[in-house]
């Protein structure tokens, strides 16, 4: 892959508008005014990645509160199963309807040096939506955005924890502010009542900054949180970087939008600082 390689949008026009003006307007409609005491200098966050009509207001609530630095790491699950289980793209740029977002090759290289299991792989990212849908929010809040995308197709706690440790080391060595975005929805396709109970258990572990606790809740209580891997790695990294607290900014389910309470997906927006 060369520095001129572009990763083109996979879900523009489906998960979010493909027209730049419409997209910009829609994203801004989800971004609330920032209170005087904000924005928050966060170490990490969890934001959902469904179609904007369902989860855009939750993602917007999170990104409204944050001061978005010029450099972010965006970790997402691998929904497609394609490519490597720990897939990074270290060069080039991602195109969105709002313009190209350059990949920070120096940070990507530092991460690969510190964690050899990270593999350069475009296939895992080609049709994956979960990192892509976060970018327009980040672009609106930070026009000079650069980022490193990582797609995770493993659920092994030890590997996820080691990745988090490596991310923390790379950020500490970098010296500047870097936001770690864990892209995840919560429980999938159970009733609204069951989903809220399961999600509450997972959210409580996240608010304790307890990566292993989150892993145990997800695996033992069968919470179908697709991005628990990115969340575990993010929690591990932020804890090592000195995180002291987490805040639940907003929680909803798809039933709040669709009115269907029989089969829902949960969405949580959480800030780690």
Task: Present the secondary structure layout.
Blueprint: E1 6-7, H1 20-30, E2 44-47, H2 52-65, E3 71-77, E4 86-88, E5 93-96, E6 99-102, H3 105-114, E7 119-120, H4 123-126, H5 135-141, E8 146-152, H6 157-174, E9 179-183, E10 188-190, H7 192-207, H8 211-220, H9 228-240, E11 246-253, H10 255-258, E12 264-272
Parallel strand pairs: 1-5, 2-9, 3-8, 3-9, 4-7
Antiparallel strand pairs: 2-12, 4-8, 5-6, 10-12, 11-12
Helix pairs in contact: 1-2, 3-6, 6-9, 7-8, 8-9
Structural overview:
This protein has helices spanning 20-30, 52-65, 105-114, 123-126, 135-141, 157-174, 192-207, 211-220, 228-240, 255-258, and strands at 6-7, 44-47, 71-77, 86-88, 93-96, 99-102, 119-120, 146-152, 179-183, 188-190, 246-253, 264-272. It has 273 residues and is of the alpha/beta class. It has one domain (6-272): 3-Layer(aba) Sandwich (Protocatechuate 4,5-dioxygenase, Chain B), CATH 3.40.830. The strands form two sheets. Strands 2, 3, 4, 7, 8, 9, 10, 11 and 12 form a nine-stranded mixed sheet that branches. Strands 1-5-6 form a three-stranded mixed sheet, covered by helices on one side. The termini are far apart.
Task: For this entry, give a set of tags.
273 residues; 10 helices; Protocatechuate 4,5-dioxygenase, Chain B; alpha/beta; 3-stranded mixed sheet; 9-stranded mixed sheet
The total count of strands amounts to 12
Our measurement of the CA-to-CA distance between the termini, rounded to an integer number of angstroms, reads 35 Å
CATH architecture: 3-Layer(aba) Sandwich
- CATH domain class name: Alpha Beta
Principal-axis shape? globular
């Amino acid at each position: 892959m060369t520095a001129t390689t572009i990763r083109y949008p996979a879900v523009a026009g489906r998960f979010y508008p493909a027209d730049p003006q419409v997209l910009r307007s829609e994203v801004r409609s989800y971004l609330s005014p920032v209170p005087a005491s904000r924005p928050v200098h966060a170490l990490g966050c969890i934001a959902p990645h469904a179609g904007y009509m369902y989860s855009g207001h939750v993602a917007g609530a999170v990104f409204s509160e944050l001061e978005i630095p010029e450099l972010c790491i965006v970790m997402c699950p691998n929904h497609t199963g394609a490519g490597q289980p720990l897939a990074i793209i270290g060069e080039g740029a991602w195109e969105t309807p709002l313009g190209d977002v350059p990949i920070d090759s120096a940070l990507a290289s530092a991460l690969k040096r510190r964690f050899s299991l990270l593999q350069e792989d475009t296939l895992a990212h080609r049709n994956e939506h979960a990192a892509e849908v976060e970018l327009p929010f980040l672009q609106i809040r930070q026009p000079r955005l650069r980022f490193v995308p990582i797609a995770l197709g493993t659920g092994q706690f030890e590997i996820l924890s080691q990745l988090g440790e490596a991310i923390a080391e790379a950020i500490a060595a970098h010296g500047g502010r870097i936001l770690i975005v864990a892209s995840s929805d919560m429980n999938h396709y159970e009733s609204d009542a069951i989903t809220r109970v399961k999600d509450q258990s997972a959210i409580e572990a996240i608010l304790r900054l307890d990566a292993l606790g989150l892993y145990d809740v997800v695996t033992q209580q069968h919470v179908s949180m697709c991005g628990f891997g990115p969340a575990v790695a993010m929690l591990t990294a932020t804890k090592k970087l000195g995180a002291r607290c987490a805040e639940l900014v907003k929680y909803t389910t798809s039933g709040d939008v669709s009115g269907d309470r029989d089969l829902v997906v949960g969405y949580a927006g959480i800030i780690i600082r």
